[in-house]
Design goal:
single chain; 46 residues; mainly alpha; 1 helix
Length: 46
């Protein structure tokens, strides 16, 4: 039983790491889009 619990905890930890990596990728993409939009606005204003 203890081994099953340890295995599940290991699996959940891996899923957590994957979710964090995905979140960081999304946040990075959001930042890139914001910068791109700001650049477009500045370009349009000129």
């Amino acid at each position: 039983m203890e081994e099953k619990i340890k295995a599940k905890l290991t699996e959940l930890a891996a899923q957590k790491e994957q979710a964090l990596a995905q979140l960081n990728a999304i946040l990075g993409a959001e930042q890139a889009l914001k910068q791109l939009l700001e650049t477009e606005v500045i370009t349009d204003e000129r």
